[in-house]
Design brief:
This protein is α/β, with parallel strands linked by helices. It folds into two domains: 51-302, Aspartate Aminotransferase, domain 2, CATH 3.40.640.10; 305-434, Aspartate Aminotransferase, domain 1 (Alpha-Beta Complex), CATH 3.90.1150.10. Helix content is 37%, strand content 14%. It is built from 13 helices and 15 strands. Strands 1-9-8-5-4-2-3-14 form an eight-stranded mixed beta sheet, sandwiched between helices. The chain has a four-stranded antiparallel beta sheet with strand order 10-12-15-13. Strands 7-6-11 form a three-stranded antiparallel beta sheet, with no helix packed on it. Strand 2, helix 5 (121-129) and strand 3 form a beta-alpha-beta unit.
């Protein structure tokens, strides 16, 4: 047999294995845990992963080029760089703002960056890790996004950037925030980890700011296992991001390639001797945050399903909303801007009773009934243990953030959630409140 014949035989067996293994893969309400999030895949991801394993190309390769190309086409953004996680993407995005290549526009230690306290830690941590000063603003209950009035009043001559996530796939007011950034000469980083495919005024999120990021962790819209990407329309930012991602090097050759610039031994940079090998010249204090080709192989199959995944999430959200509307005496329903088209990550709910003990009782009840649930990430991040010795500024009241810390949670609406799961979650929630 030829190698190609052997490979085809292997892939046929892989496909057969997938269907045998997953023949009874059904979630039964009450018997099985209804997961709050999770991967959705079929034999195509497993076949791609097997092909990548047979290639045995252990870093970024042909699948990664394909995946970046498909992402670029879907997002309508020219420069897309895959990374080993969404958190790494955020680190790269904020680090890029400190690059000497930006000249007088670079961020320096002590510069202030506006964000929200009701966020995920690794949206906020890169600000701290780059010796910048986070400024925490309150959010609005319902949208769980930044309060625009508080944002405006927080800006001073030390403010240099805004770093915000679209909470649970719900876009914030991108037109107003873009206007604020333009008027005050601020950078905008959009964390789209939860919001792949969401739009604002018919324009995809991530296309408004200077840099945007996505996570491909199994909980998210599509997955590569661990993984993420960072993207931009700006060619200078692309060069900077790529450098920080790839050890900080000045060279931009793909893995396994050499002398792309045709000047490998002709550069004179820093205080190095003329002709020092460009592959070993470093422009930034960078990292190695590349994705592997095996992860990208999964992503190539996942991105083909993104439209159906988003459609199912929207369908599930609508059914949840229509049912839980009957419980408004007890809970605040999610809200969204009139120009926003969310790509929902989860279904957020806030108890009207601002009592963390009541929420704990409900979450324990969900656990008994095998209903997966999550809090809204770190609650009020400044209350977290690791923030004790961090220098930050809190602007205005964080009243709503504290309410979220005490009273908010969310339920799953991912593509594996069906109508019987939604009915089960609603009926048990209704029973809890009625009793």
């Amino acid at each position: 047999m030829t190698l190609l014949e052997i490979e085809n035989e292997i892939l046929k067996l892989v496909k057969k294995y997938y269907f045998l293994k997953n023949a009874n893969d059904k979630i039964e309400p009450g018997k099985d845990v209804i997961p709050v999030s999770g991967k959705s895949y079929n034999e195509k991801e497993v076949i791609n992963l097997t092909q990548s394993a047979l290639d045995f190309w252990l870093t970024s390769g042909r699948f990664n080029k394909e995946f970046e190309g498909k992402l670029s086409k879907f997002l309508g953004i020219k420069y897309v760089l895959t990374t080993n996680s969404g958190s790494s993407s955020n680190l790269l995005a904020v680090s890029a703002l400190t690059s000497p290549k930006l000249g007088e526009k670079r961020l320096l230690p002590g510069d202030e960056v506006i964000t929200v306290a009701a966020g995920f830690p690794t949206t906020i941590n890169p600000i701290i890790q780059n010796n910048l000063k986070p400024v925490f603003i309150d959010v609005d209950v319902g949208t769980y996004n930044i309060n625009i009035d508080n944002l405006k009043s927080a800006i001073n001559n030390k403010t240099k950037a805004i770093v915000l996530a679209h909470t649970l796939g719900n876009p914030y007011d991108l037109e107003e925030i873009s206007k604020i950034c333009k008027e005050n000469d601020l950078y905008l980083i959009e964390d789209c980890a939860d919001a792949l495919g969401a739009k604002f005024n018919n324009k995809i999120v991530g296309s408004f700011g200077n840099i945007a990021t996505i996570s491909f962790y199994p909980a998210h819209h599509i997955t590569t296992g661990e993984g993420g990407c960072v993207y931009t329309k700006n060619s200078l930012f692309k060069v900077i991001l790529e450098s920080f991602r790839d050890w900080g090097r000045d060279c931009y050759c793909e893995p396994g390639e050499e002398n792309t610039c045709k000047k490998r031994y002709d550069w004179l940079l820093g205080e190095l001797p003329h002709g020092y090998d460009h592959k070993y010249i470093y422009a930034h204090a960078g990292y190695n945050l590349k994705i592997t080709d095996m992860q990208a192989a999964i992503g190539c199959a996942q991105i083909e399903k993104i439209d159906s995944f988003i459609k199912k999430r929207k369908k599930n959200f609508k059914k949840m909303y229509d049912l839980f509307k009957n419980l408004e005496d007890y809970i605040y329903l999610p809200e969204w801007h009139s120009l926003a088209e969310p790509s929902w990550f989860g279904f957020p709910l806030t108890l009207r009773n601002d009592n963390p003990e009541e929420r704990t009782k409900l979450l324990k009840y969900y656990e008994e009934k095998k209903i997966g649930n999550r809090l809204l990430f770190g609650g009020n991040i400044i209350k977290q243990p690791y923030m004790k010795n961090v220098e930050y500024r809190s602007h205005g009241s964080l009243k709503n953030t504290n309410k979220i810390m005490n009273s908010t949670y969310w339920l799953g609406i991912h593509p594996r959630i069906e109508d019987d799961h939604i009915n089960y979650m609603f009926e048990n929630t209704k029973f809890f409140f009625n009793r």
